[in-house]
Design goal:
Blueprint (H helix, E strand, L loop, with lengths): L2 E5 L4 H13 L3 E6 L18 E5 L5 H9 L3 E4 L6 H6 L2 H21 L2 E7 L25 H20 L3 E6 L1 E3 L8 H10 L5 E3 L5 E6 H14 L5 E4 L4 E3 H11 L8 E3 L14 H7 L8 H14 L1 H17 L3
Parallel strand pairs: 1-2, 1-4, 2-3, 4-5, 5-6, 6-10, 7-9, 8-12
Antiparallel strand pairs: 9-11
């Protein structure tokens, strides 16, 4: 697989994957990205021009997708609308990109017999109780809570149907919450980091007790590349790095790392339908494919991420005021 099409490759997780490919393989990469507010050409800056090219376009554009898929050996499908709050305000784009876009990718892969790996999320499984030792596995029933997670659940079902009905050579991965470089500052960790850098008090939903299972984007990228090469067709693999932390603990770590008191935060009204806890059991990918995280220590990975945002203020600064204004309008 020397020619890889990466949809959503100028967004957070997708761009990290493109960087991973250029560092660790000799593959050529075409990025298809609509360049919405959550993506940027700057996330691909510095990559070799003879190996990475950007096509600005919509994954729901069937003719464009067909032409691109036909010219590649494999597709890694990251493209998605992914912000829960936005899906509650305006669910339409989530249906168009996450469902219609995935349909177009599947049809093109079917016509041209191109290998596909579909990126999904642990949010399709709903949530777990805070005191429940259970973790999500590949056998966990789907129970999405928001328009975002429902659209992603639907896209997963489309992939499975196209594998079974049409023989599309596809795999799926459901990953826990990513953190790392190039993540838009509307998201939880970069928002809190940049707030503290700016001297603002971090704002935390509810009591901050909600738990997320964090994984560094570089670990996610390595797992996806491994699944693409060695994963069994039709299989689903859950990707997680045992990084469970509640939101309040994450904020306190950020404050302490940046020299602020650990209690210098503000609690705000909880988000509608806010899932309590996510937790991934990654036994299958570890035992079957031998994957292991590079950043098993969340605190070390978080410290590295904080330093990235401190050094790349030019990347996030132009979006900060507008992002905070949008949150302020919702009392968040």
């Amino acid at each position: 697989m020397q020619r890889i099409l990466v949809t959503g490759g100028a967004g957070f997780i997708g761009s990290n994957f493109v960087h991973h490919l250029t560092r660790n393989t000799d593959a050529t990469v075409t990025v298809l990205d609509k360049l919405t507010y959550a993506a940027s050409k700057e996330s691909l800056a510095g990559l070799p021009g003879d190996r990475v090219s950007l096509v600005v376009g919509d994954v729901a554009d069937g003719a464009l997708v067909d032409d691109l898929v036909a010219a590649h050996d494999a597709v890694v499908h990251f493209a998605a609308e992914s912000h829960n709050d936005n899906s509650l305000t305006e669910p339409g784009p989530f249906i168009q990109t996450n469902l219609v876009g995935t349909f177009q990718i599947l049809e093109a892969c079917r016509r041209h017999d191109v290998r596909l790996h579909h990126i999904s999320t642990d949010e399709v499984y709903g949530d777990l109780e805070l005191d429940d030792p259970t973790r999500f596995t590949e056998a966990t029933a789907y129970n999405p809570s928001s328009p975002y997670s429902a659209a992603k659940a639907g896209s997963d079902h489309l992939v499975r149907a196209w594998v079974r009905s049409f023989g599309v050579r596809a795999t799926i991965s459901n990953c826990s919450n990513n953190y790392g470089p190039w993540q838009h500052i509307e998201k939880f960790i970069p928002r809190q980091i940049t707030n503290v850098i700016d001297g603002r008090r971090p704002r935390v939903y509810g009591t901050g007790a909600n738990v997320r299972d964090w994984i560094h984007a570089e670990d996610h990228s390595a797992a996806v590349w491994l699944i693409l090469r060695q994963g069994r067709i039709g299989e689903t693999y859950l990707i997680g790095a045992d990084g469970e932390r509640n939101n309040l603990d994450v904020v306190r770590l950020i404050l302490e790392h940046l020299g602020r008191p650990a209690d210098d935060y503000e609690l705000v009204t909880d988000r509608a339908g806010h899932d309590l806890r996510y937790a991934i059991d990654a036994t299958k990918i570890r035992e079957e494919l031998g994957w292991r995280p590079i950043y098993p220590d969340f605190e070390a990975g978080l410290a590295r991420t904080i330093e990235w945002y401190r050094k790349h203020e030019d990347w996030w600064r132009p979006h900060k005021d507008a992002t905070e204004a949008a949150y302020a309008a919702k009392g968040q």
